[in-house]
Amino acid sequence: MPAAAAHRNRILIAFACVYFFWGSTYSAIRIAGEHLAPPLVGAIRSLFSTVIICGICMLRGTSLRVPLRTAWRLALIGILFMTINNLLLIWGETKVASGLASLIIAMIPIFVAVIETALPGGERLNLRGWAGTLLGALGMLVLLWPTLHRTEGTGRRSLAGFLILIAAGLAFAVGSVLSRRFHFRVDSFVATAWQLGCAGLVNIVIATAGGTFRTAHFTLPGIVSIVYLSTFGSVVGLTAYTYLLKHVPVTKVSTYAFVNPVVAVLIGIAFLGERLEPAEITGMLLILVAVATVILSRTKAGPAPSDPLLEVPIEE
Length: 316
Fold this sequence. Notes:
13 helices, two-stranded antiparallel ribbon, mainly alpha, 2 strands
């Protein structure tokens, strides 16, 4: 297979992994958060994932050593992704339904676009890209409206969950933009191992300080959920996401946030007996069109700040 075709296929597979596995994790996060405290879920998930990914690196004969400057940058990204974002997401899902949580997180591409626009040399969406972004936001609102209507009586609890999930989305958006601009010259598995490992250590500190290990009550649904989150949500999903950030503009990679709610809702229908209202079906269709529009658009990217120690060519 020609190199260009093989590269394109790897990108398509990576997109499929991020779209499906991250979309399916919302249900697993909800189940895990109902049985164990959020910091404990985050700590076990991150460390278990780190063990798996390090084992993969050892089997491949890939060294985990990275320059010190790269190490702290990977640690920063990992903490944004798997500590701040992940713990806030788990916490938010204890106050808000998983489907609603996935829709709130769908605003990440909007955050990314605003951050990139504000930064020097940031990526600029063309007219089609902005149209897709706005259409996705509209689709999210249409999809979200019935759920907001049903949860109006929950008052402060729903509002707190909404704000927590907004903060989670902002953390992930900042991490995505930084990861792209750092231009890591690191194997995707190695980068993921460092991100998960550093986040896992921070999560353990938080879980220990909160006394969650002493009060934990492990159940089969909780354990199964954490295993699924560790393998498919973290190892497969985060590795694919890291690979995409190295080869695809971040504004296009972020379209996963439009697809994940659709996947989460469909899983709810298939396995949890949930039903969609007409407005929710309309919202999903708008989101799918928006994803296609943004992915097929061309970005106008200014030159990113150079880093002679880490800069490598980025294939568009």
